[in-house]
Amino acid sequence: MGAVYLDWNATAKVRPEAVEAATLAMQSVGNPSSIHAAGRAARATVEAAREAVAALVGVKAGSITFLSGGTEASNLAVESAVLAGCDRIIVGATEHEAVTESAKFSGLPVETCPVDGEGLADLAWLAEALKAGGRPLVCLMLANNETGVIHPMAEASALVREAGGWLHVDAVQAAGKMAVNFNALGADTMALSAHKLGGPQGIGALAAGPRATLSRRMQGGGQERGRRSGTENVPGIAGFGAAAKASLSGLETLAAQAAWRDAVATRLGNKARVLGAGAPRLPQTLCLSAPDFASDIQVMNLDLAGVMISAGAACSSGKVKASHVAQAMGHDDLAPFVIRVSGGWETTEQDWRRFGDVWLEAEARHAARRQKVA
Ligand code: PLP
Which numbered atom of ligand 1 lies nearest the CA of 9? Predict the structure, then answer.
């Protein structure tokens, strides 16, 4: 039996449309800044991709700045908000490090907006905190990378707007997996990343609304309207555009995975607890915690059986930490045992079933060993 890849929230398999578009761009010569025919063709490729990425989140093409990924997009958003006069930062308790580290680095006072037991932002806390005044930057992710939990963004943005603040939305996990509309969500800036939706790694975008003035991220030739100097990554951008288009038309197909995911969760029964089960979630993300079955041991057992998943929080060194998301949700007891199972555009019902089979076998072996020791 072939290996099953269920770690799409870490990175998605590149879509064939993206491979084709990126390959074509690599086979074509031309710097988008050159005015001759080859340069104009490269420029046309970049601008067509910009249209596709803009359509993914319902903005005009001019709102999109291409850069190296979700991390750089959130860095640029935070830097820009600070330069534009924001004087305090509020970050959600389950944000990605791309946001929390940028906020810390800014030197501004940083407050953390708590989440409830399901992982949803505490809007009553936010409303109260915003009363303190100043010009706040509020950073709230649309969908969480570990649990898939979707924050009540439109409600949050109404509060931020009333306080005259800047709302930065990390939509890296949400875009391409659910319908995302920048304006309906009331965002000022939004981070996107190609490799989470079937595009190449190392390319992303920041969408910015009319209230957000972006700072210059790099000093140099003034590409991307001066916001991000450096010759554009044309193959990456072309692949991103193709993946954005394909994922937008594949949203309904992806939504079907919720039923397959929930069927597996039901099979595991009381052997594992689903985090965020009571909240709106991405359709293809399942976050589990099984008492006394350490995350890394689960991941290794499943890997040996040919099923690739991830521990809730894997840091860049490959080490596994207790899930900060579970901790923020008030589940300190569950945090060391969290795993994340995530599907994507190629995942089948059979893949989800196979995960269930393999996990139940691994858990039974683990329980038997524990009993022997006791
Ligand atoms: N934000 C979230 C929610 C993520 O899950 C990730 C990637 O894991 C990032 C940001 C960073 O994106 P990138 O890898 O494109 O820098």
Answer: 5
